[in-house]
Amino acid sequence: MSRLTQAVVLFLFGGAILRASVTDLFLRYVKAGLRPYLIAAGVLLIVAAAMTLWSAMRARSTSSSLEEEDHDGHGHAHHEPRVGWLLVLPVLGLLLVSPPALGSFAAGKAGSVSAAPASGSDYPPLPAGDPAQVGLLDYASRALFDDGKSLTGRNLRMSGFVTPGPDGQPMLARIVLTCCAADGRPIKVGMTGKVPLDVPADTWIQVDGVYTAKRAKDPANNVDMAYVEVKSWEAIPEPKQPYS
Amino acid sequence: MTQTDLPASAAPPVALPESPPAPATPARERRIGSLEVLAGLLVLLVVLRGWLAGLMTGARLQTWTTVFVSVLVQAVPFLVFGVVLSAIIAVFVPRSFWEKALPKHPALAVPAAGLAGVVLPGCECGSVPIAGSLIRRGVTPAAAIAFLLAAPAINPIVLTATAVAFPGKPEMVIGRGAASLIVAVGMGWLWLKLGKESWIRLPHRPDLEGKARFEAFWSAIRHDVMHAGGYLVMGAAAAATINVVVPATWLARLAAHPVLSVLALAVLAVLLSICSEADAFVAASLSQFSLTARLVFLVVGPMIDLKLIAMQTGVFGRRFMWRFAPTTLVAAILVGTATGLVLL
């Protein structure tokens, strides 16, 4: 790999990272908090590409190019890392493919997150509003560890994508990320009442409903899953921040 | 020449495994050098996009690509941070600094380097090039190994994450810190006793000595990004494959057995290659396993996994890796289990 090629690969790699982080593309793969570091890394890679280009050009124009330019030939081939070619793959992945955020395939593979109980003894009251917006993880935690005390008597609104549950019935799910999609695990909430049947998996929906005491176990990891009684639902576009 | 503004429309997936990197063409004839190969490859991929998209519609393949890209995106800032730090060590920190900073006696330098790793918040992707750079600058490999193993496992960020993931169980944090430090320092000392300098084969890096510092700095960065980055891509691909292929139900069956569960989570830690900042949360979700098994998961993961094996092979060479990886794995399992039995 000549230095010029390395400069191009570095530039593409940095450019792909930078493009993903200034648009919202990166939110499909990592947490929002990583953005400044991604931008910094992308800029640094592009600067490294520019510096490589500059020194390769300089080496070419001056005749002292012997030690620099000939790294990809004349028996020095293995010195310049061939493995660097692999960096073309993430460039393709980010620029050409831009794979979607994790969805029902990942949700079906792994057991539901075990919603942790609140750190204090009591759950804070739900936010004002009718219906009140609740996250799936928050709902599951309140339902499972507080017997739904803070949920009873309220109209609730939550969103997620549809995924087939262990029993084949549609469930409402969201992927919980800690760091990146490799550690993404689903939080699944079952639905009773007006269950959105015949909705293809991975469709994003917004559900209005109320608390129900129904429970089920996720056979994948033996974790309790909460249910919600659906009063109405509608399809929504995938949110910018697909993970919770 | 540059392709950054390619249209990236709604996820037409390209079969990544279908497009292996072209081998570097020996540039004896300058006409078809690597640059032309790269240009050709890129043009071909853009032209064949639609066809490639047809190959990759399956949910499994799509999930594979998502996980692959996301492991890389997550690791890139840490990789770049590590590479910059290692270039600074290589270019701006004089050799004599390490002689003064680390205790003269190698046996004492090992724990000192291990503790230095505690302070530096870094991911494992960053610590590999840093350790390579330290050896280049004359630091004894034993101390560099202690740093390599300690830095990703027991820095403040990772320990905080562990405390958050296991609320009300501070012994998990203590156990993780203690076991990881013991393994790191123990491996350093073991190297002093048994290790041979000839096992380590650092990749040739363009000679930095003769150059102006500024140029040498960027040259080191370019080389390390291409090198460590390439191996990172390999590791990310392996981790994505495991992530998509291994069903969670297998794990449930293993969890019931006390010995098998420890071994299963150790192997899982190696295969999954999760960043050390995140692995505590994954361990917390593996609730059917015993705490000891999960502690082993946390001790093994940052020290040895697919991504690290690939990167360490790149930086230290195969002869080193064949000996280092299995020994570290065994040491981490033993120390992790012992700590778990005592503390948990």
What would you say this structure looks like, in words?
The complex is a heterodimer of chains A (244) and B (344). Chain A has 244 residues and is of the alpha/beta class. Chain A has helices spanning 3-22, 35-61, 66-69, 88-97, 104-109, 136-145; strands spanning 132-133, 156-164, 170-176, 185-193, 204-218, 223-235. A 5-stranded mixed beta barrel of chain A has the order 2-3-4-6-5. In chain A, α1 (3-22) packs antiparallel against α2 (35-61) and α1 (3-22) runs parallel beside α4. The radius of gyration of chain A is 25 Å and the shape is elongated. In chain A, 50% of the residues are buried. Chain B is mainly α. Chain B has 2 domains: 16-57, no CATH class; 67-343, no CATH class. Chain B has helices at 34-47, 49-55, 59-91, 95-101, 106-119, 124-136, 141-153, 156-165, 170-194, 213-245, 248-255, 258-272, 279-285, 291-300, 306-316, 318-343. In chain B, α10 (213-245) packs antiparallel against α15 (306-316). Chain B is flat. At the A-B interface, α1, α2, α4 and α5 of A face α1, α3, α10, α11 and α13 of B.
The first-to-last residue Cα distance of chain A is 42 Å
Derived from helix and strand composition plus strand pairing, the structural class of chain B reads: mainly alpha
Taken in chain order, the helices and strands of chain B follow as: HHHHHHHHHHHHHHHH
The gyration radius over C-alpha positions of chain A equals 25 Å
| Helix proportion of chain B | over 70%
By DSSP (H or I, 4+ residues per run), the number of helices of chain A equals: 6
| Average of per-residue pLDDT values of chain B | 81
CATH topology of the largest domain in chain A: OB fold (Dihydrolipoamide Acetyltransferase, E2P)
Class by helix and strand content of chain A? alpha/beta
Regions of chain B with pLDDT < 50 over 5+ consecutive residues? 1-29
Q: How large, in whole angstroms, is the Cα Rg of chain B? A: 21 Å
Strand tally of chain B: 0
Kindly state the number of beta strands of chain A.
6
Largest sheet of chain A: 5 strands, mixed, barrel
Strand content of chain B: under 5%
Question: What is the overall pLDDT average of chain A?
Answer: 85
- Quaternary organisation of the protein chains: heterodimer
The largest sheet of chain B is: none
Q: Provide the helix percentage of chain A.
A: 25-40%
